[in-house]
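Milestone M4 deliverable, item 7.
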Amino acid sequence: ELLGTTVITLSIGTIDGKECLNLATMNFLGMIGKSEIEEAAIESVQKYGVGSCGPRGFYGTIDVHLVLEEKLANYMECEEAIIYSYGFATVASAIPAYSKRGDIIFCDREVCYAIQKGILASRSTVFYYNHNDMDHLVELLEAQAKKDKKNPKKARVTNRFLVTEGLFVNTGQISNLPKIIELKQKYKFRIFLDESYSFGVLGENGRGLTEFYNVDRRNVDMIIGSMEFSLGSVGGFACGSSFVIRHQRLAGQGYVFSASLPPLHASMVLKAMDYFDKDLFAKLIDNCKIAHKALESIDTITVAGDPMSPLKHIRLIDNNSEGALREICALGRENNLALTVATYTSTEMFAKEPSIRLTINTDLTEDDITSSVQKIGDLVHQYNSRDISGGS
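Output delivered:
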């Protein structure tokens, strides 16, 4: 995020010469800034150079790519994994690699922009269901089932997919995966689950939504993730059965036609995964719960997001405009607190309600969290008082 004039990712950063506690970074597990990870990157540059010299299928495969893919597959308890050089391109490439014109996609309307672009590139017919609304999803599935009965010949050659996020960046809510799997068994569709924000966050071992709900990973046809948040590097990955993953090596455009992940970033991910620990994941969840409870005590705002989510969306009860939220963020910087307004492109499929997107990480202490939340309440009060006096 651009905050003032400086990009900061650590828990404490400097903005325009002022030291701020950072509640805007996606560095959930504090991997960015670890000296051991930085040293792994330096050693990789010294050994392999900076770039990868081409796509994976054309001089671009380095041994660390293969090691990382194997480690991710083993960690996620899947048969195989594939890595991409850019997080956004991972899901945006994976979806159209399988779903084509004439196929059908059911999708939560609050999915991130990368998923929206992947669906657009697929040219498939898409039905958006209301956010986390399983009843609405059933209505759409039933309507399609009736169409299929009327035209069974077409139905036999139509592939059906359901695409959703594990943890929604736009709302902070957690997807109802058990219900989706139940519906999969009845209505026969494939599940693509984007775990970009839930990998390294949910589940006792950070394996994401399947571990969180204790469901068989084989019920999810493909799990997609980013290495740019919990892992503090660059790139993305997809994992699943060998049959599913190997298809992407020929059909995933972001894999086939893009230069492969620079070896230094692969080395950083390998080192970051060495820090994965149950206590680390438990600390993140504890911090999330502390922040959520404290935020709910402020009577001038609403807080959206699951208590266990490191993503919280704050909105003003009165005058919740983007301009008002930006002024509060500016007041925050004046008071040594880095906040950011959630920003969206003009081509989002559905309009978003303005919010301050608050993020929680493991480097924050309980005192950091409670004092910051109290400061947020004070900032909102300060803004409301100024707004009232200015309008009178």
